[in-house]
Amino acid sequence: DFAKIEAGKVIPDIQVISVDELIYDVGKLVNSQAHKKKHAFNYETRNKNLAISCDRRHARQILINFLTNAIKYTPPEGKVDFWAERTAEGDVRIVVKDNGVGIPDDQKDKVFSAFERIDDAYSKEQMGTGLGLSLTIRLAEANNAEIGFDSVAGEGSEFYITFQSADASLLVNKNEEVKIQVPRGHGEKILLLEPNSEEASVVIGYLNNIGYEVESHPASFDASLSVEEFSLVLIENSLVDDQGEVFITNLRQTLKNANIPIIVMSSRAFDFDTESYLKMGIDICLNKPLKLTDLAQTVARVLPQ
Fold this sequence. Notes:
This protein is 34% helix and 23% strand. The chain is an alpha/beta fold. The radius of gyration is 21 Å and the shape is elongated.
């Protein structure tokens, strides 16, 4: 996404979005991360029926970046608050506030710079590329939104994004839009190779709920799978990137059905990445972040009828 923005290839899909739904959606998504660090995590909208005009995926990504940073840079048993409110000017501001390590005054100018990290002992222990907030401010600019923050070293930070308000009445018929028909499975067995336990749990829960049976292995596969009857394999791209075609060849030779459909769920979204996966023998490449309805339709499409 960062590379696409730098190349001017990101065009927002502007639509009217319910802020209530956005807050609940993103808050629910990161709740488990906050819970793992024993944070008190609260999310709410302080004014009901707020609406904004922006690209839904971009808005989610911006807020997820804010929240994951707040959770990451707040030591265990801290506090993270996430809310939306109307400003005095009539715009909509969404805020993430924490009581974490904060940002020293002499380092505030590097917050939105690419590959920069705050230079303190706790921050250095945290994983990350230093691209999150740099990407965030570019996504905000693409959606005519403004980002800002206040922070005190040792006391915490408050990051916020201000969107132009939209007419909430346009949301009335939102639930009347054409609903995507989600095809259901009939007990077909799917092998999931996904090292990220949180992402795996989402995929497993969803596919099981719509009629499939999912067996998950976090990082690899072994000969024990040769006795099982799978109809489809889902793989996270990092497992393929290191070994390439050898990984796919060994997988097909291990499983009973050498022609089994294989779908890779990829965070590498360029055309040449997709072409590379197809050349390795992968049938379909789905780019992250995944829409679960797209996953369901793709699974149904490639499974033998």
